[in-house]
Amino acid sequence: MKIYDELAARGLIAQVTNEEEIKELINSGNATFYIGFDPTADSLHVGHFMALCLMKRLQMAGNKPVVLLGGGTGYIGDPSGRTDLRSMMLPETIRHNCDCFKKQMERFIEFGDDKAIMVNNADWLLELNYIDFLRDVGACFSVNNMLRAECYKQRREKGLSFLEFNYMSMQSYDFYYLYQNYGCNMQFGGDDQWSNMLGGTELIRRKLGKDAYAMTITLLMNSEGNKMGKTAKGAVWLDPNKTSPSEFFQYWRTIGDADVHKCMRMLTFLPLKEIDAMDNWEGCQLTEAKEILAYELTKLVHGEEEAYKAKSASHQGKQP
Ligand SMILES: N[C@@H](Cc1ccc(O)cc1)C(=O)O
């Protein structure tokens, strides 16, 4: 099965700008694509993990990932899909969080000139000149369209600051910059990023007369319609000091029955055939499926040894 069909079969594709072109591009291994990560905390979480797995799948199909750390966009904060106002992050916090992300990402993606690269948008955004930027990029954006963008809808009630309103133009500029400097022709992201990503493809089209593509991945929701990867205590982190491997294991080991197969498809690298074979498992077999899911994910994030330990502890009823 080619990569595009595999992504579709795993339920990962939410929206695409041009289905045929994207299919051709990623199936032939000719895409240089990027995903941006804003350094909002000192550890990655489950949502980031999904994005990194997507990068890995595409890399395995011959495409080249560009991981973008938002050391510049972190100064603004993305209002997309959020109802709360974000507090401004201090420069030293941004830098520290970028370092933490970098270390964790190196465990998932193999970097090296031909394989994958990591960039930080602080390197080009922080040195932009306001007037130059407005003339060069600002002139390409329609405020009317921006106000209609899906990502700002939820912010209408609480208000959107001018600072945050500029976020879209920054992310768009990143895509334009990566297109020119790294031949990056695709951007991926969570579905809440759609408007920001279209901003980029539009900017590239207007300034360079070239096509670039965007695809969003389905946000991981549970059967009750809530974002997954959160517990009463907060996010499920990838840093073992914030969420221990055993807590991480238990999170997946105890998810709702209706969510097991979806998570297997979307998050693990188990072959689809194997997952399909578990489709009608019930009762204690379903419990076994949850354990397989928990083991696979703990192995990906914390390594085989920790996964094994977490599984044994779970069997002995030693829960975190
Ligand atoms: N806006 C993205 C992060 C991002 C930052 C810069 C980009 O160029 C792309 C994506 C998010 O909040 O998840």
Structure explained in plain terms:
It is built from 16 helices and 8 strands. It has 320 residues and is α/β, with parallel strands linked by helices. The strands form 2 sheets. It has a 6-stranded mixed β-sheet, with helices on both faces. β2, α3 and β3 form a beta-alpha-beta unit. α12 runs antiparallel to α15 and α13 runs parallel beside α15. The longest helix is centred in the last third of the chain and has 20 residues. The mean pLDDT is 94. Bound molecules: tyrosine.
Feature tags:
two-stranded antiparallel sheet; 320 residues; 16 helices; alpha/beta; binds tyrosine; six-stranded mixed sheet; single chain
The helix fraction, in percent, is: 40-55%
Small-molecule binders here are:
tyrosine
So what's the overall shape?
globular
Mean pLDDT: 94
Major sheet: size, sense and barrel closure?
6 strands, mixed
Kindly report the spatial arrangement of strands forming the biggest sheet.
1-6-5-2-3-4
How many E-type strands? Answer: 8
